[in-house]
Amino acid sequence: MRIFTLLAALLLLTACGGGGSIDTDSTGQTSICQRTDINSQVFCALQQDYLWYSDLPASINPDSYSSPNQLLQAVAAPQDRYSFIITRQEYEDRYINATFFGYGFSSVRADNNTALQIAYVYDDGSAAQNGLRRGDKIIEIEGVSVAQWLSRLDAGTATNEDIYGPNETGVIRNFVWRKPDTSEQAADFIKKEVTTNTVLHRSVAVQGSKRIGYLVFNTFIELSETELEEAFAYFVTQGVNELVLDVRYNGGGLIRVANQLSTQIARNFVQGEVFVKYQFNDKNTAKNNSTLFALGAGRSVLNLPRVFVLTTQSSCSSSELVINSLTPFVDVVQIGSATCGKPIGQQPDIIGNYVLFAINFQTVNALDQGGYFDGLQPNCPVTDNITGDWGVVTDPLYAEAVNYIASGSCSDVAVSSATMRAEPVKPRLAAPWALNNEQ
Asked: Which of 252, 241, 180 is nearest to 206 (CA)?
């Protein structure tokens, strides 16, 4: 499987013996690490590699937990909102093959639970191929109003499968949606395996002498290396001299892709400099190291002294790393709201049929700046709102960036918002992609 190619340098846990409840030694480690069951192996890995291993229970009975995920949720440190565990197949599908099963759209509830507003669509999905776009509002599915469906869903008398159909190839549902201009469209969407594009949008707008590139980037995975190169090659041919990077829904992913993106933005200003420093727990200090800025799979560069980054509380991990790593070297203007607050990362462990993503290192930039657990705060605070497709002038985050490029400062609205900024409320994230309702 390709998972072994990507994770070849990581620890493949093996064990022998075991069975029944356990007694640990003075370290709480030896006995449980001799067991072969998955729960024991997961806890063994946590004892050695978990950043907050000192917060783990001194001992556990692995048989008390019905699954590795239940164990992880039970023993994780109070401050840990990010560790998770998935099967190898889930990892392969999401991070390597970049596929999921559905119609190819992500939505949020809108209009007092009477509509589902589209946050984004994937090019390969039936939804996009039938004309559904960001900003549209689904109002009816299979002859039943969305208001009725959501009411039944909340009451427990309907399930997502009732609404969208089972995850089987060829399942058809009829959708009716309203466009931002209030016109309505209808079409039959067909379920299938959808290849997810990580660059959701790219465009160039001209404002006087400024050629503004707009890049909407949704996740940092293997596929992104090629898609980012294609986007930057396009920007180079278009003579882009300002860049708006939109990571408002980007929950993170591979650090090497974050490095590629950062270097393609500002290579001449960062070449030979430290991109990130890794700090592991006190059992693994030999792993502490740093990585320099590098193009990786990229070739096309913009060499910009400034970049605008659009963020929300869903901007996480590698998205924040791009901001923090570039800040010592170029002007990073952050627009939107505070990010999720994840200056930490996971080096995954393959354990049996699972891949464990437990927090096991911290990250800081070249100036040793990190620790942004309350999120990276925006220079220009603006409330996100879906008003139409990507790049419409009514999009408050994108409009703020364009205004800043024209005026040289935040708008009056953003400046006044800065004085009323509150600490973000950040939910525990089960997985880096679990941020919207993807179907």
From this structure: 241
Per-residue pLDDT at 414 exceeds 90: no
- Select the more confidently predicted residue: 414 or 100: 100
Residue 430 DSSP SS3: coil
pLDDT (tens digit per residue) in 4-49? 333 333 332 222 222 333 444 444 445 889 999 999 999 999 999 9
Q: Tell me how far apart the alpha carbons of residues 430 and 427 are, in angstroms, rounded to a whole number.
A: 9
Give me the residue label for tokens 């999720």.
Answer: 340
pLDDT score recorded for residue 13 = 24
Q: How far apart are the first and last CA of the chain?
A: 27
Cα distances (angstroms) measured from residue 176 to each of 169, 194, 421, 436: 21, 21, 38, 20
Contact 401, 335 (CB under 8 A): yes
109-121 burial string, b = 16+ CB within 10 Å, else e? ebeeeebbbbbbb
Is pLDDT at 211 greater than 60 in this prediction? yes
**Would you list the DSSP string of 336-388?**
ES------EEE--EEETTEEEE-EEEEEE-TT-----TT-PPPSEE------S
